[in-house]
Fold each of these.
Amino acid sequence: PGVVHTVRQSGFMAEVGLRSFSNLEIVAVITQESLENLQIAVGKTVIATVKAPLVVISRDEHSIRTSARNKFTGIVSALTRSGILCEVVVNLREGSQVCALVTTASVDELALAVLTPVTVLFKAFSVVLSVALYSVQATALTEDIVGEDKPPALPGTVPSRNSRTDAAGRPPYSSRKGNIFATPPFSYTAS
């Protein structure tokens, strides 16, 4: 999640700038209709997600010229090979993780391995904005979940393994896949 700090409108499109809770600057381009339907305005909390196949990885942030508005540096923290594709997890400098799906040939050409410094890029059009049904609070939670009556996970999240319930009895959730830009774990409460 993050807070919208700029909205520029042009015709039927809008450019939305937001700062994630972990302090990343993210730019998204959405339709005017989406801007209105989601009631996005400066100061509103939104969730920014990017599908892993839309994330591009580069080894040298200074040698690449691109139209991608979102460009972040980090270190490869995990690499899982599976025939044609590889899942590459990158720890960004401010603490977030980004997951990319790239071909095995590209991983080999870039000589990617754990601890390799990289730049991740994605276009503003690749960012999907959504508004949480619940307000999100960035809190560290450490006790185990008690009881079996748990609400379903929010889209793109899974229950945290080491956590406790919030004041309303809901368990916290942390992002595992889908590049939700937040610093896990976080809990949600009804708004």
Note: The longest strand covers residues 70-82.
Amino acid sequence: VGINAAESLVLVSDRLNVSIEDLQELRFFADLGGVGAEKFDSALEGLIKRVGELKRGSGELKEALKGENDALLNSLRVATDARSAFLIAADAISQEEDATKRAALAAAFFGRSLGADLINPLLEGRGAIEAAAREFRTFGGLTDENARAAEKTGDQFQKLATVIKVNFQTAIIEAGPALEGFTDFLKDSII
């Protein structure tokens, strides 16, 4: 994983309040199902937002599930983090036999377009997610500590690049009169 990828993990992890380890594992699961990291991050962000609204007693998810599945609503209300909410959503989608209701559930959890993208990967439910997470852990992934260290290294490289750029521009500006004379010399020499 490069510095830019580690920086991205830290930014998304902080924005969504999900651990770097969980984010990598969930992204790996989604990627195996054909859903790229950006789409998955947006879907997870939507789920977190909807569960947050549900916990406040409002929102699309509450309206979609009210009266239909009170047990699911209660499970989501007590979800303590993004991963557990995602696993609850996966179980609900995988256990729904009616394809139209499954699509409606996915849309309620993740939004219309992103929900549709996640239906197929989620058909196997929690077991498939946990299996992908176990497999990912065998690869080694980044720890929170390593990703944050890489982010700081990236920041230092950015500062170094800025120092070099500013000093190079200053040197060129200061050398302007000499370059003008050298350009005139070459022009006169060639003609």
Note: The mean pLDDT is 85.
